[in-house]
Write a structure and sequence with these properties.
Distance between the termini: 29 Å
Oligomer: single chain
Length: 137
């Protein structure tokens, strides 16, 4: 990624290609990742290991559509990026085709000329009264 603003599209492209090497390459070696279920892992290898099995099974026909929401440069070579993400699961998912919206917060750092994700947290949009997943407009 040449700039922090590239994160949503790069993440989307790696996901949609189901390319775990590309996905892992977006992250710093010591990156942390919190998925939408609150599962925490550390390290780009662990992030790939978390995603590889689901991309071979329930999400093998899934796609993401990401939309940049905000970029805040917090220091030289460090930025916080927020983006909307809509996961569309296909027939491979046990519950059948469905959509889930999440809000992703990513902290990016510049390593040489490349920006990498140092930390990412994915939050499912839910109704706080019922816990039911909601889709944004």
């Amino acid at each position: 990624m040449n700039r922090p603003e590239d994160a949503p599209v790069a993440f989307q492209a790696a996901w949609n290609a189901h390319d775990m090497a590309a996905l892992g390459g977006l992250f710093a070696e010591d990156a942390t990742f919190v998925n939408r279920f609150g599962h925490f892992v550390r390290g780009s290898d662990a992030i790939v290991a978390l995603h590889a099995p689901i991309h071979e099974t329930i999400y093998r026909d899934s796609t993401l559509a990401n939309e940049l929401l905000d970029v805040a440069h917090i220091a030289d070579g460090a930025a916080v990026v927020h983006f909307w993400s809509r996961l569309t699961a296909g027939v491979a998912h046990p519950a059948g085709p469905q959509q889930v919206d999440t809000l992703i917060l990513a902290v990016l750092i510049k390593q040489g000329e490349t920006w990498r994700i140092r930390a990412l947290e994915n939050v499912t949009l839910t109704n706080p009264r019922t816990g039911e997943a909601i889709l944004r407009g």
